[in-house]
């Protein structure tokens, strides 16, 4: 089945087509998905997650993830399985659901679509350890479930493409050849869908974050005259020679 001219993506128990050739003769694969209009799935969710989300199978959720993310990389599919697993293990929460992402790649979008936790509403904390792991927890009790990729469960002989992907040992040519990357990604995703939760492990944890992030006072920068949140400094970070940009004349 195709949606919006794009080949449907295999997630749970359905075939994964290689793609579909469009009117210009270009092969359209899941890796080339580009959304025309943002699909914000998480805006109306309530802890632990909204009934409408419960009624969707993981296949449909992954498709919505791809629309939100802009493409279908393997990390996004792995993230969907991880969030789904963590939600199930945690169950309903008495307080508001909060989340922690230990990487800024892919997984963070799975959390924002599949839970009410986003960077904007401050229910999602980013602790960039460079590890593909997440924690969902009750903000009141600070207790939750941490789900992570368990390399002990991913023998290279059983999941060679996934193993190489996670350890960044794939053919270097995929960095420059988009077609090779799409073929490689499809193989990785196929192994992820075969393994499902079997490659994941979890821990019961208690987080150390405050119930709510500290609300810093806002003052006017002495140099640029823009308001900013200050921890006591009178000059904003950008004006203190630590900015990410250089002003052009």
Task: Describe the model.
By secondary structure, the protein is an alpha+beta fold. The chain folds into two domains: 2-215, 60s Ribosomal Protein L30, Chain: A (2-Layer Sandwich); 216-249. 29% of the residues lie in helices and 17% in strands. It contains seven helices and eleven strands. It has helices at residues 51-54, 58-69, 74-90, 107-114, 160-166, 178-195, 238-242; strands at 2-3, 6-7, 20-21, 27-28, 97-101, 124-126, 133-138, 143-149, 200-206, 218-220, 227-229. The relative contact order is 0.12. Residues 1-21 and 31-52 have low confidence and may be disordered.
How many domains, in number, for the residues?
Answer: 2
Our estimate of the beta-strand percent is 15-25%
Main sheet strand line-up: 6-5-7-8-9
**Helix-strand topology string:** EEEEHHHEHEEEHHEEEH
Query: Average pLDDT value?
Result: 81
- Rg, Cα atoms, Å: 21 Å
**CATH class descriptor of the largest domain:** Alpha Beta
Low-confidence stretches: 1-21, 31-52
**Structural class computed from helices and strand pairing:** alpha+beta
Shape: globular
Largest sheet data: 5 strands, mixed
Helical element count? 7
Which range best describes the helical content: under 10%, 10-25%, 25-40%, 40-55%, 55-70% or over 70%? 25-40%
Give the tally of β-strands: 11
Name of the CATH architecture of the largest domain: 2-Layer Sandwich
Q: What's the CATH topology label of the largest domain?
A: 60s Ribosomal Protein L30, Chain: A
Distance between the termini: 53 Å
């Amino acid at each position: 089945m195709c949606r919006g001219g794009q080949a449907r993506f295999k997630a749970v128990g359905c075939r994964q087509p290689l793609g579909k050739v469009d009117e210009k003769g270009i092969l359209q694969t899941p890796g080339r998905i580009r959304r025309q209009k943002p699909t914000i799935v998480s805006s109306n969710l309530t802890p632990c997650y909204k009934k409408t989300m419960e009624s969707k199978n993981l296949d449909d959720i992954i498709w919505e993830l791809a629309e939100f993310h802009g493409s279908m990389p393997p990390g996004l599919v792995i993230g969907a399985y991880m969030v789904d697993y963590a939600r199930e293990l945690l169950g309903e929460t008495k307080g508001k659901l909060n989340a922690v992402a230990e990487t800024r790649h892919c997984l963070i979008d799975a959390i924002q679509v599949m839970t009410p936790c986003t960077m904007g509403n401050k229910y999602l904390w980013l602790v960039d350890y460079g590890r593909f792991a997440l924690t969902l927890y009750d903000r009141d009790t600070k207790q939750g479930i941490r789900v992570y990729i368990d390399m002990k469960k991913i023998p290279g002989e059983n999941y060679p493409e996934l193993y190489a992907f996670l350890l960044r040992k794939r053919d270097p040519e995929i960095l420059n050849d988009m077609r090779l990357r799409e073929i490689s990604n499809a193989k990785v995703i196929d192994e992820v869908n075969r393994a499902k939760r079997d490659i994941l492990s979890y821990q019961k944890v208690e987080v150390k974050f405050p119930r709510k992030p500290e609300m810093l006072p806002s003052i006017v920068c002495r140099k640029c005259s823009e308001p900013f949140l200050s921890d006591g400094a009178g000059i904003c970070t950008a004006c203190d020679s630590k900015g990410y940009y250089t002003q052009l004349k």
